[in-house]
Amino acid sequence: MREELIRLCSDAEGHLEAHYSDMLTAFDNPLDHLGRFPYYSNYINLSKLEYELLVRYVPGVAPSRVAFVGSGPLPFSSLVLAARHLPGTAFDNYDRCGAANDRARKLVRADEDLRARMSFHTADVANLTDELGKYDVVFLAALVGMAAEDKAKVVAHLGRHMADGAALVVRSAHGARGFLYPIVDLEDIRRGGFDVLAVYHPDDEVINSVIIARKADAHANGLHNGHAHARGAVPIVSPPCKCCKMEANTLEKREEMATKELSV
C-alpha cells in the first residue's frame, strides 16, 4: 500500500511540474517567474541545505561537472544550485522522459549562462556507464527507483561506475514522510561502494532527508567484493526535535529559578 502511495505521489508531482513548466515557458524569460510554483521556497531551502552539507562533509569540493539523475520537467534543484551555489559548474540532467527534458530545456532558453552550463539527456541511469566516471558530484532524486530494491540497484550501479572520491547526494525520507518518498537504507549505500558521511532529517518545510556519501577508493578503503567497510558512526546532523527544544527550555528556566532562590 505504501509503495502504491509513493507511485501516486510521483505521478501527481509529474503532472504538477509539467503544468507549471508549460506555464513558465509562456514568459519571455521563464526563470524570472519561478516563484509562481507553489513549492519553490522548498527547493530554495533544499538546494541550500545540500550545498552546505557538501561543503561541510566533502572538504575542498569544487565540482566542475555535476550530474542530476531524475531531473524532470521542472529541474528546480539544478537551476537553483547552478545559479546560486555553483556558478562555475556544468550540469548534466538525466531523465527517462524525453518530453520532460524538452520542457526543461525551454526554461533556460533566455539565460545565456545557464543555457551554456545545463544540458538535458534522455536516458535511464541503468544504461549510463563511462559517463558517470566524469562527474565530481552525482545527485539522485528522491523518486528515482521508487521501490527499495530498485533504489539499491541504482546505487550499486552508480558505485560501479562513478569515479573514486566522487560525492553522491541521495534524497531519502524519514518517519511518516516515507509514505510520500522512498526511504533509502544506509546499508544499501555502503554495499554500493560508498562511505556514508552524513545524514540530515529536516523538521521544517523541507520534505526530503539528505544523505551525503563518497565513492570509496577500492584500494585505500579495503573495498572487497563490492562491499565498503563502514568507518565509524555516521553523523546525524538534523536539527533537534521541537520536543527536545521544549524540554531544554524548561530545564533552563528551572535552573534559572533555582539560582535565583539560592541567591535570595
How is this structure best summarized?
The protein is of the alpha/beta class.
Description:
This protein is of the alpha/beta class. The chain has one domain (2-239): Vaccinia Virus protein VP39 (Rossmann fold), CATH 3.40.50. The chain has eight helices and seven strands, in the order H-H-E-H-E-H-H-E-E-H-E-H-E-E-H. It has helices at residues 2-25, 40-57, 76-85, 98-107, 112-117, 148-161, 186-191, 242-263; strands at 65-69, 90-95, 118-122, 137-140, 167-172, 194-200, 209-215. It has a seven-stranded mixed sheet with strand order 3-2-1-4-5-7-6. The longest helix has 24 residues, at 2-25. Mean pLDDT is 85; it is low at 221-230 and 240-248.
Kindly list the characteristics that best describe this protein.
7 strands; globular; 264 residues; alpha/beta; single chain; Rossmann fold; seven-stranded mixed sheet
Query: How many helical stretches?
Result: 8
The average pLDDT value, as a whole number, equals 85
> Which bin fits the share of residues in helices?
40-55%
Number of DSSP-assigned strands: 7
N-end to C-end Cα span? 62 Å
What strand line-up does the widest sheet have? 3-2-1-4-5-7-6
Task: Give the C-alpha Rg.
Answer: 20 Å
CATH superfamily membership: Vaccinia Virus protein VP39
What structural class do the secondary elements suggest? alpha/beta
Q: What's the order of the H and E elements? A: HHEHEHHEEHEHEEH
Query: Which CATH architecture?
Result: 3-Layer(aba) Sandwich
Strand content: 15-25%
Largest sheet: 7 strands, mixed
Approximate shape? globular
Count of discrete domains: 1
